[in-house]
Amino acid sequence: MRLVQLSRHSLAFPSPEGALREPNGLLALGGDLSPSRLLMAYQRGIFPWFSPGDPILWWSPDPRAILWPERFHLSRSMKRFHAHSPYRVTLNHAFGQVIEGCASDRAEGTWVTPEVIHAYHRLHELGYAHSIEVWQGDDLVGGMYGVAQGTLFCGESMFSRAVNASKTALLVFCDRFTRSGGKLIDCQVLNEHTASLGAIEISRHEYLTQLAALRMQKLPQNFWVPATLFTPQG
C-alpha cells in the first residue's frame, strides 16, 4: 500500500481498498476540488480532508461510520427538548451561511478553508450539495451540510451556536429523509458526538457495497427543493 499522487489532468482515483492502514484510510493526495473530481470521489466512497496549508488529501477509512436514519438515537432529554423546541428547521435556504458556520464555529480549528467553501458552493449550485438550517427567530443557530448520492447522504460537517441545535438539524433531517425513502447517512469517521446520536461503524467493503446500490436509487424529484421542515409549536 502506498500513497498515490493524483494528476490534475485525470479524474481517476486508485481503489479505496488500497488506502493506508495508518493513518487510517489515507488514499491519495493532490488533484483539485473541481465538481467533476469531487463527484467522482463521492461515487467511489472517497472524500477530501486536509488542514490549511497542506496538499489536498483523499480518504476512505476502514471501518466507516454510518447512521441508519431510522435508528437515530433520540434521548429522553432531547425528546423533551424537541417537544417544546424554539427552533425552525429549513432545507437549502442558506447553504453559504451553513458552510461558513461549519468553518468558523470550531474551537479545535477547521478543514473547511475558503478553497473548500468555494468548491462545495459549486456543488450546491449544481444540485449535489445541500444544507439543513436551524433558526431561532431570524438567527442561524446551527446546521449541517453534505453531498447527496441517491438515497445515501454523505454528511460533511455540522455546527451549533445554541443548545441542541446541531442535534435538531440531524433529527429533523433523519425523519424527513427516512419518510422520503432515504436509506443511509455517511458519517465518515466515528466520534463521540455522532456515536451518541446512533452512528455505528461498518467495514469499508460493506459501505462501498451499500454505496454502489443506494447511489443508483432516487429520492422524490422535489426532495431537495428549498423547504421548511419543522416549525416550533405555539
UniProtKB/TrEMBL annotation:
Sections of the chain in a coiled coil: none
GO cellular-component term (any): cytoplasm
Pfam families: Leu_Phe_trans (PF03588)
Subcellular location: Cytoplasm
Transmembrane portions of the chain: none
EC number: 2.3.2.6
HAMAP family: Leu_Phe_trans
UniProt KW keywords: Acyltransferase, Cytoplasm, Transferase
Family: Belongs to the L/F-transferase family.
Location (main, coarse): cytoplasm
Highest taxon of the lineage: Bacteria
Function: Functions in the N-end rule pathway of protein degradation where it conjugates Leu, Phe and, less efficiently, Met from aminoacyl-tRNAs to the N-termini of proteins containing an N-terminal arginine or lysine.
GO MF entry, a single one: leucyl-tRNA--protein transferase activity
Protein name: Leucyl/phenylalanyl-tRNA--protein transferase
Biological process (GO), any one: protein catabolic process
InterPro entries reported in the protein's UniProt record: Acyl_CoA_acyltransferase (IPR016181), Leu/Phe-tRNA_Trfase (IPR004616), Leu/Phe-tRNA_Trfase_C (IPR042203), Leu/Phe-tRNA_Trfase_N (IPR042221)
Catalysed reactions, as listed in the record: N-terminal L-arginyl-[protein] + L-leucyl-tRNA(Leu) = N-terminal L-leucyl-L-arginyl-[protein] + tRNA(Leu) + H(+); N-terminal L-lysyl-[protein] + L-leucyl-tRNA(Leu) = N-terminal L-leucyl-L-lysyl-[protein] + tRNA(Leu) + H(+); L-phenylalanyl-tRNA(Phe) + an N-terminal L-alpha-aminoacyl-[protein] = an N-terminal L-phenylalanyl-L-alpha-aminoacyl-[protein] + tRNA(Phe)
